[in-house]
Amino acid sequence: MWCPVCGRVTLAARFDENLRDSGACVSCGATNRQRQVAWALLKLLSNGPGGSLSKLSTLKIRIFHAEAAGPIHQGLVGNPGYCCSEFIGYDRLPGEAVEGTKHEDVQDLSFGDNFFDLVITTDILEHVPDPYRAHREIFRVLRVGGSHLFTVPFLHGGVLDQERCRVGADGEITHLLEPQYHHDPLRDGGALVYRLFAMEMLVRLAQIGFTTTMYDARSPRHGIYGNNAFVFIAQKHHYQPD
């Protein structure tokens, strides 16, 4: 394959039943899903999926990536307008530096209005108690014409989101379905899934003010395989006050 993350002709190895998050590139470690994101990012910013993320370092744009490690981070970190963060805990202040890593909660970002050209979140919003509050915050910090490129677990063919649990006014979590956790490199026990998404998400993004394109990013040439290879690009076309 030609890995769109590192730009090398290489191999993808160790696919397993979790097809989205396996099949690591033997050169840079990018998984199937990370190659999907890079493929869409190159398509968005360079008029085609050829090359690698490092070629975007010459673009004079401001990028916020809600992740501070991994192959996509490594591919983008050379861009002078690049900013990255991790969610470290609700006891931290937005924008606080914790042992050299910037803390941000996508529901309450520390950045000013109309600041970024591009925001990237990859399989984060399903772990956020109020993902549509996060979408509104991302809309706020994007400049007009800017885009939010993201992945989420998407119930293809589903109409309504599947709300699995919710947080009450007292901060207590009420489980509506059997608790589900995804792997989290920062936390033992994994990250709790609050919501899986369906067509409802596209309607609610339009209500916020986004125009959203959904890509089915299957491309064996780029090591992208399987169903549910969806990448979303939500573009802010105008300022929409509260």
Walk me through this protein's architecture.
Strands 4-3-7-8-16-15 form a 6-stranded mixed beta sheet. The longest helix has 15 residues. Helix 3 links the parallel strand 7 and strand 8. 17% of the residues lie in helices and 24% in strands. The protein is built from 4 helices and 16 strands. It starts with 11 loop residues before the first strand and ends in a 6-residue tail after the last strand. It has 242 residues and is an alpha+beta fold.
Strand order of the largest sheet: 4-3-7-8-16-15
Secondary-structure content class: alpha+beta
Please mark out the parts with pLDDT under 50 across 5 or more consecutive residues, or reply none: none
Radius of gyration: 17 Å
Instruction: Based on Cα principal axes, name the global outline.
Output: globular
Count of DSSP helices? 4
Q: Percent of residues in helical segments?
A: 10-25%
Number of E strands? 16
What does this entry show, briefly?
This protein is of the alpha+beta class. The chain contains four helices and 16 strands.
Which helices and strands, and how do they pair?
Blueprint: E1 12-13, E2 24-25, H1 32-46, E3 63-65, H2 71-76, E4 82-84, E5 97-98, E6 101-102, E7 116-122, H3 131-141, E8 142-151, E9 162-163, E10 165-167, E11 173-175, E12 181-182, E13 191-192, E14 195-196, H4 199-208, E15 210-216, E16 230-236
Parallel strand pairs: 3-4, 3-7, 7-8
Antiparallel strand pairs: 1-2, 5-6, 8-16, 9-14, 10-11, 12-13, 15-16
